[in-house]
């Protein structure tokens, strides 16, 4: 597949599926009310409506004069029933019945029934688009209690509830709580209404959270004509939004791959190609989300879920872009700012490379966790789980600690390695009798590349807790011994002179260690000689060691036709039998 068309195809498939799900749920195709205040701010409100205090309900002196007596088919006996009456009748466009779920007692006495129906329509649009109603947690008992004896830290056992919150929205840095209240009027049995304070804030909430302003200029036929029960102007607007988002994403892709890749700044040209795809996808989805939420404003039963899906896609794409940016930028620094890690004076380069490697993984991990947290926060169930975990932090910490002991131990060991620096990327080490280079240090393990191109995967806890050899910890220079076995009669000074001559004629000897040949052991059959050579790094020292060993053995073999080579001696009995 041509990579040039991969982003458009993937973007088209994802957005088309998401938009189809969202469009299919937009069942509200009637003309929406304007953002103008329904109730005049100069109208006097009713005072002193609350009667004598009662812990089980609010006593009212009068209730909903603008609506008259509540019809018998309207059920307001429980919190769930009151909200069902409001939502179901609003979906059926019977706002005259839905309005009976409202407590109008903080509105002016001059409010009309038509104005009340308009308020009901506004509140329904705000709830439908912005509030996730949790029907399972909404009590269906007249006293407002839940069926569970205990529910988290907010348990109310054996006591009626007279106020329940079913949503919360923010306006200008203050929270507006949407509540149901249990009220009692005269000799009637207590029943539930959407609180008077909530009703009083409907106009303010609708001005902020209502459908987009663009809907106000759409003619009636744009609302009444539908495609699959969707107002035709929203279908066309969604298509236009998709095209704009697609073109913007493609433009970002083109700029990063064609324009910025030729930048005079190396770090820009170096990372632009890797950022092109995630940047185009993130910008395209964010643009589509912004246009649909702020200008198209889908409503309906699944409108809030639809917006959540788009938000999750936006957060996911943005998180991917940030992770890719950090990864690309860190890789650029590793490639262009660390220098040669195999040189004689490479300690600073290896230390910088190790810090960048650890920092890259830590930052990517943190961005990933933050992105996942933002996504999960869109689901109320995960939020409640998080709150419960915090409430029982001690138990949760013990359980998580036991379950993830090995992983957490390796992660902590990785942080210790970054701070204490017992080993760094590029170091020559011997692990489990295997010699090699530290190729990478990850979150939980270290990779050692052996001389024969094998890879050893070493858990970081072992690096911290077990002994190993690091030949590059201070510097990479190394002294290596050459062991030879020769006959007792050999002149050691001749070997010493030859060794010195060989070293002085070698280009790899670093001249840090003077030529030295010593007799280190005498056995029953041979004499053991040890010659010492030094070089700038372990690999060079190894090659020099092998070269000198070979030449010294050849030299000893040439002395008097190999007379001084190590020999096996046998004792002969010359006694003749008679």
TrEMBL record:
Principal subcellular localisation of the protein: membrane
Keyword Transmembrane assigned: yes
Subcellular location field: Membrane
Domain of life: Bacteria
This protein's record includes keyword Transmembrane: yes
Transmembrane segments: 235-256, 276-296, 302-323, 358-376, 382-404
Keyword line: Membrane, Transmembrane, Transmembrane helix
A GO CC term assigned to this protein in UniProt: membrane
Domain Mechanosensitive ion channel MscS: 407-472
Pfam families: MS_channel_2nd
SUPFAM superfamilies: Sm-like ribonucleoproteins
InterPro entries recorded: LSM_dom_sf (IPR010920), MscS_beta-dom_sf (IPR023408), MscS_channel_2nd (IPR006685)
Any GO molecular function: mechanosensitive monoatomic ion channel activity
Protein name per UniProt: Small-conductance mechanosensitive channel
Higher taxonomy: Bacteria, Pseudomonadati, Bacteroidota, Flavobacteriia, Flavobacteriales
């Amino acid at each position: 597949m041509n990579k040039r068309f991969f982003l458009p195809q993937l973007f088209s498939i994802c957005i088309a599926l998401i938009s189809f799900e969202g469009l299919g749920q937009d069942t509200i195709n009637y003309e929406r009310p304007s953002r103008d205040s329904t109730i005049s701010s100069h109208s006097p409100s009713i005072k002193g409506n609350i009667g004598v205090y009662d812990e089980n309900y609010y006593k009212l002196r009068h209730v909903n004069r603008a609506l008259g007596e509540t019809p018998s088919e309207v059920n307001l006996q429980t919190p769930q029933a009151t909200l069902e009456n409001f939502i179901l009748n609003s979906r059926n466009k019977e706002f005259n019945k839905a309005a009976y779920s409202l407590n109008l007692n903080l509105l002016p006495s001059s409010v009309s029934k038509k104005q009340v129906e308009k308020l009901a329509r506004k509140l329904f649009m705000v709830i439908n688009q912005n509030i996730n109603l949790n029907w399972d947690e909404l009590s269906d008992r007249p006293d407002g209690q839940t069926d569970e004896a205990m529910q988290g830290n907010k348990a109310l056992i054996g006591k009626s509830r007279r106020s329940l919150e079913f949503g919360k929205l923010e306006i200008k840095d203050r929270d507006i709580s949407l509540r149901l209240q249990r009220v009692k009027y005269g000799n009637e049995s207590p029943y539930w209404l959407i609180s008077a304070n909530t009703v009083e804030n409907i106009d303010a909430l609708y001005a902020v959270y209502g459908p987009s302003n663009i809907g106000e200029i759409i003619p009636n036929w744009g609302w009444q004509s539908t495609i699959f029960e969707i107002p035709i102007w929203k279908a066309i607007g969604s298509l236009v939004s998709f095209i704009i988002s697609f073109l913007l994403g493609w433009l970002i892709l083109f700029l990063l791959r064609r324009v910025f890749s030729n930048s005079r700044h190396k770090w820009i040209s170096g990372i632009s190609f890797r950022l092109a795809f995630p940047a185009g996808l993130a910008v395209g989805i964010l643009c589509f989300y912004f246009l649909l939420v702020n200008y198209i404003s889908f409503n309906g039963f699944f409108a809030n879920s639809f917006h959540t899906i788009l938000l999750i896609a936006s957060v996911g794409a943005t998180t991917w872009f940030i992770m890719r940016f950090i990864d690309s930028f860190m890789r650029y620094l590793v490639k262009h700012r660390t220098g040669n890690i195999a040189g004689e004076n490479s300690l600073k380069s290896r230390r910088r490379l190790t810090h960048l490697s650890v920092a890259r993984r830590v930052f990517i991990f943190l961005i990933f966790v933050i992105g996942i947290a933002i996504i999960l926060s869109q689901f109320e169930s995960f939020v409640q789980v998080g709150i419960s975990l915090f409430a029982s932090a001690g138990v949760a910490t013990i359980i998580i600690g036991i379950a993830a002991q090995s992983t957490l131990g390796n992660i902590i060991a990785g942080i210790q390695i970054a701070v204490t620096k017992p080993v760094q990327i590029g170091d020559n080490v011997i692990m489990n009798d295997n010699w090699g280079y530290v190729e990478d240090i990850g979150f939980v393990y270290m990779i050692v590349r052996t001389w024969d191109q094998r890879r050893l995967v070493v858990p970081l806890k072992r690096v911290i807790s077990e002994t190993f050899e690091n030949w590059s910890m201070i510097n990479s220079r190394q002294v290596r011994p050459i062991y030879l076995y020769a006959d007792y009669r050999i002149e050691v000074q001749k070997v010493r002179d030859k060794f010195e001559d060989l070293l002085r004629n070698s280009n790899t000897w670093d001249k840090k260690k003077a030529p030295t040949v010593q007799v280190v052991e005498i056995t029953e059959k041979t004499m053991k000689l040890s010659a010492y050579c030094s070089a700038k790094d372990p690999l060079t020292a190894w090659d020099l060691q092998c070269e000198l060993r070979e030449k010294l053995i050849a030299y000893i073999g040439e002395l008097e036709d190999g007379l001084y080579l190590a020999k096996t001696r046998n004792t002969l009995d010359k006694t003749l039998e008679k």
